[in-house]
Amino acid sequence: MTQSVFPENFLWGGATAANQFEGAYNLDGKGLSVQDVTPQGGMPATIGDLDPLITDEPTPDNLKLEGIDFYHRYKEDIALFAEMGFKVFRLSIAWSRIFPKGDEKEPNEAGLQFYDKVFDELAKYNIEPLVTLSHYETPLHLARTYNGWASRQLIGFYERYVRTVFNRYKDKVKYWLTFNEVNSVLHGPFMSGGIATPFAELSKQDLYQAVHHELVASALATKIGHEINPDFKIGCMVLAMPAYGYTANPLDQLAAREFENQNYLFSDIHARGKYPNYIKRYFEENNISIVFAPEDEAILKNTVDFISFSYYMSVAQAHNPEDYETGRGNIMGGIKNPYLESSEWGWQIDPVGLRLVLNDFYDRYQLPLFIVENGLGAKDVLVDGPDGPTVEDDYRIDYLKKHLQQVGEALKDGVELWGYTTWGPIDLVSASTAQLSKRYGFIYVDRNDDGTGSLARYKKKSFDWYKKVIATNGESLYH
């Protein structure tokens, strides 16, 4: 190849979440979030009742409380991202840093000032911030007092929060995401939606009513953002997981379609502004009746500017799933695919699935797309290199290279894609398992699952590899 298939203004970068890397959970007026009280992670390997993991106070062995101390080291870390050539950096604002309980009338100025400093530092290196408004960090008070998004009152609290940050940062941030992996609330209602009702006791009626509240809040945020700054680009963010019918049996294909519709529901409403017909049958057959406020239908018509998503794996589905081995680590369930390899955490590796997702989303919505999470969690080993400690992470390079080559194929298919941010460009704490040993980064952080370590940063082999990918705008992927 002599010319890159990636657009000239393609936004290369990395993605993080406040609750997984900021630390400083109790500094400068920050309140507790749901993440601060789930020391074992928000998604156990077996999805079930999360309530035993939830305490009323932070637990010292929760790595997320200190994260990797980005709160105090943001200048050092952003300089490393700039050295790699980042064009964009995805981060989230910790809601409870701005409104410590979530239902206050006035924001916490110290929290607002922190993000001012972060955005100014990014601007120094011409790195665009891509900001997630709510990334698995509902203020704990809203979960305990209102049962999270199960309560319609959260729409008003969220509206006050987004108005505050939109107005504060209207000249510093252009790209916004309303919720992280909004469809994950169906599988992790406490982590994703702050819903304190034990999962085993949560009715489908209450769960889908909570979904409705989030979707209305998301559309309202889109409306408000466009009013405050018409140049804002506001997107939704969903967990993308293509499903293959396990066999050519039409019933298996139907099972795969029904699984994917659970996810399409969220992007359909964000992109089309109304509930799709297929979900109406599901509601009827499960005695679900969504309560609409008089204004909800009009609010939902405020559709997003682009669709963003995470992509880590695909699954297989069958009409008789009990006859097959379940895919380990696949958050949304699914059957293990015998044609795919798996990561150390059981997540099946499927680069071609990313091309399929890109084409499916673009064909369905004809909206710009943004890949905002993709990467490989692995147990890296620090070794001595010629320039100091490093990690020989050829397995990560191989994973990312194969996925990005499929992104290139999707671009040649005609998909409009704005950018790509790898998950965890610097090692951070896993949301699902609360481990730091599940590393994704180009930058190694000296911290262990037991909390020991110096927090020193070291460049992995993949650091220079990704730097070259960005410098050549993807052309190096083909050499």
TrEMBL record:
Keywords: Glycosidase, Hydrolase. The active site is at E373. PROSITE patterns: GLYCOSYL_HYDROL_F1_1, GLYCOSYL_HYDROL_F1_2. One of its GO terms (molecular function) is beta-glucosidase activity. Gene3D superfamilies: Glycosidases. GO terms for cellular component: cytosol. GO terms for biological process: carbohydrate catabolic process. Belongs to the glycosyl hydrolase 1 family. This is 6-phospho-beta-glucosidase. The lineage of its organism: Bacteria, Bacillati, Bacillota, Bacilli, Lactobacillales.
